[in-house]
Write a structure and sequence with these properties.
The protein is of the alpha/beta class. About 30% of the residues lie in helices and about 25% in strands. It has ten helices and 19 strands. The longest helix is centred in the middle third of the chain and has 16 residues. Belongs to the HPrK/P family.
Length: about 325
């Protein structure tokens, strides 16, 4: 199976989400991979109905499943467990710190299926592990650029090397806006359709300004000048001014670019001496906020222009 995945060992090693996992059996299966953020409760599968069993998902056993195995005939229970373990199950996780029957652990061990235990209630554990898997299994990418928070709008500045992205971001920081990432932006897709950008840990809060070298924005301007991560709302591409190229002068038709399957507004800003890019980007952020409130300046101008053309009186005809 292709796609982003993580191993059961990585799940077992997690300390951030407080899953509290411990290994009970199936150590050799810790290399098994998880590809889906969805989990499954295998109650019906234990009872023999495996039609809708998804072996690639983590199988969570709570009080209902363990009680069922403890209450039915031992021979039948063993048969049910062997039937379940005949599938390539990625992992069993038993909640509430419950102790499964010995034959369950022996069968899982023989099948190489890692069996973990968590002290958490089933509902709490399912909520936490779903968030964990969604965070770890969503698509990611890296882009060369600068990410800034301008008036609450996440703006990704891109353009060829040396065009002035960092200098532009520095101007915005001096105006009171915030830096998220410089040079390399780590982007992760979040459900349902959002992009979250942040800096690589090694260069967090740092910015390269040609002629000055590396500067630390947090040390220079304080914690209010930086953000750890930010949803990317739009992309602004800085491009050298080309007199032979036609640039959008009205902005009636919004352009978009797709990153990790998510469409975000894409604006090309021509760069030449005399243009105050910091002010232009700040206005772009304000205009984005206005559009979010339902007001589109360019389309309003177009509608007023068309309205005037429709009501304009005809001149006297010359005979």
């Amino acid at each position: 199976m292709d796609g982003i995945s993580l191993s059961i060992q990585e799940l077992l090693d997690d300390n951030e989400y407080g899953l509290g996992l411990a290994l009970l059996a199936g150590q050799r299966g810790l290399v098994n991979r998880i590809f889906s953020s969805r989990i499954q409760k295998p109650g019906l599968a234990l009872a023999g109905y495996t039609e809708h069993l998804h072996p690639d998902r983590i199988q969570v056993l709570g009080n209902t499943e363990i009680s069922y195995l403890n209450q039915i005939d031992d021979r039948l229970a063993l048969e049910c467990v062997k039937n379940l373990c005949s599938f390539p199950v990625s992992c069993f996780i038993i909640t509430k710190g419950l102790v499964p029957p010995a034959f369950f652990l022996e069968t899982a061990e023989a099948a190489g299926i890692p069996t973990l235990s968590s002290p958490l209630q089933s509902s709490t554990f399912i909520s936490l592990i779903t968030r964990f898997l969604e965070e770890r299994l969503l698509p990611t990418t890296h882009m060369h650029g600068v990410l800034v928070d301008v008036l609450g709008v996440g703006i990704l500045l891109v353009g060829k090397s040396g065009i002035g992205k960092s200098e532009c971001a520095l101007d915005l920081i001096i105006r009171g806006h915030r830096l998220v990432a410089d040079d390399m932006v780590f982007i992760k897709k979040k459900v349902p359709a959002a992009l979250v950008g942040q800096s690589e840990e090694a260069i967090q809060h740092l910015m390269e300004i040609r002629g000055l070298g590396i500067i630390n924005i947090k040390d220079l301007y304080g914690v209010s000048s930086i953000r750890e991560k930010k949803i990317i709302d739009m992309m602004l591409e800085l491009m050298e001014w080309n007199p032979a190229q036609e640039y959008d002068r009205l902005g009636v038709d919004d352009k978009h670019i797709t990153i990790l399957g998510v469409d975000i507004p894409h604006i090309i800003i021509p760069v030449r001496p005399g243009r105050n890019l910091g002010s232009i980007i700040e206005v772009a952020a304000r205009n984005f906020l206005l559009k979010g409130m339902g007001y589109h300046s360019a389309r309003d101008f177009q509608e007023r222009l068309l309205s005037r053309m429709e009501v304009r009186p005809l001149g006297n005809e010359v005979e």
